[in-house]
Amino acid sequence: MYGLLQPIVTQLKRKATYVKPARIALLPMAFALTACSTVSLDTPRTPVAVSAAESAQLQTLRTITSQQDRLYRIAAPLLVSNAPLCRGNARNLIGFSAKNKYSFSEDYVDAAQALGFTEQLQVTGILNNSGAARAGIKRGDILATVEGQAMPAGPNAERQAAAILGPMVGKRSSIKLGLTRAGSNVNATVPLTLACGFGIELGNADNVNAYADGRRVLVTRGMLNFVRNDGELAFVMAKELAHNALGHPSQQKMNATAGGIIDNLIRITPDASALSGSGGIRPMPQELDAAADKLALYMLARAGYSIDGAAAFWQRLATQYPSNAANAYTAIHPATAYRIDAINKASAEIKNKTAAKKSLMP
């Protein structure tokens, strides 16, 4: 679900009978972690003997969680700093994420328990500069009550908590929580945080690509391996966030197609047959792509990221993975020369506004 209860590792959803989790506007889906995970993925809170198979699962959890945490960390300033640019997609969010051992797929429940997760929902990450951070919420806090009502535990805790919290978020400026911290009861009043309400997902595939379906952004493992640093990863994430903010998936009538690709790629083992060619995604028209590039640069600048090197990055990506490379980014964003020209113009515009101390609004 959005934010507060979105699992750290969205790839590890139940595989046997996949059901989309309930979603509420607390933090963007799959985004809540902007720091390290609550429970150390190197040393379980309570050591538990595990089999060889479970040990392999633990390593899978560690690897995927590390990649997901990186996405959350890079996305955090982009989402929080750009609520005015997200148009109708800005939401009041609570600013942290929580999960329990059932937040993982059925095959990974035992591994999650070995890492210290229990029946109860516990805070797994806090959004920097959010109301939760200002209220002193800490990773590892157990969620006991919300506005005096007991928080659920067990296999359906996230969905049940969503039903409790959902109606509250739209009516309040803050939420009162009862927490258990190191065995002691702690009360906290958490102001809500306005941010772009888009989800951030990790795609468990090696193709070098990223997707937006109008409500989520997914970056593949292959793209994570391609980018040279966090700044380049921010270029990719801002571009897809801009597509969502501008409503391009809807204009292209690609919401369902892109959504299906994202649903597939967040699984531990995606259906490889669905990754052939462009996966049914139509190439983005150059005018829409250039518009997203311009908005992305504004988002980056507002979030404190350098926009220097953006044109060089996209050119390098297009050179190494040209439009005829199956299931790669340029295949669905082919207008490289047109985009580079738009990027250079937008970069100059932003730098001029910055020098003149003008508002960074497109």
What are the key terms here?
362 residues, alpha+beta, Pdz3 Domain, 4-stranded antiparallel beta sheet, 3-stranded mixed beta sheet, 12 helices, globular, disordered N terminus
What does this structure look like?
The chain is globular and about 60 Å long. The chain is an alpha+beta fold and 362 residues long. Mean pLDDT is 83; it is low at 1-47. It has 2 domains: 3-195, Pdz3 Domain; 204-355, no CATH class. It has 12 helices and 11 strands. The two termini are 31 Å apart.
Write a brief caption for the model.
A 4-stranded antiparallel beta sheet has the order 5-4-6-7.
SSE inventory with pairings:
Elements (H helix, E strand, L loop, with lengths): L51 H30 L8 E4 L2 E4 L9 H6 L7 E5 L4 H4 L7 E5 L2 E2 L6 H13 L4 E8 L2 E8 L1 E4 L2 E5 L6 E3 L3 E5 H6 L3 H16 L2 H4 L3 H11 L20 H17 L7 H11 L8 H4 L3 H20 L7
Parallel strand pairs: 9-11
Antiparallel strand pairs: 1-8, 2-3, 4-5, 4-6, 6-7, 10-11
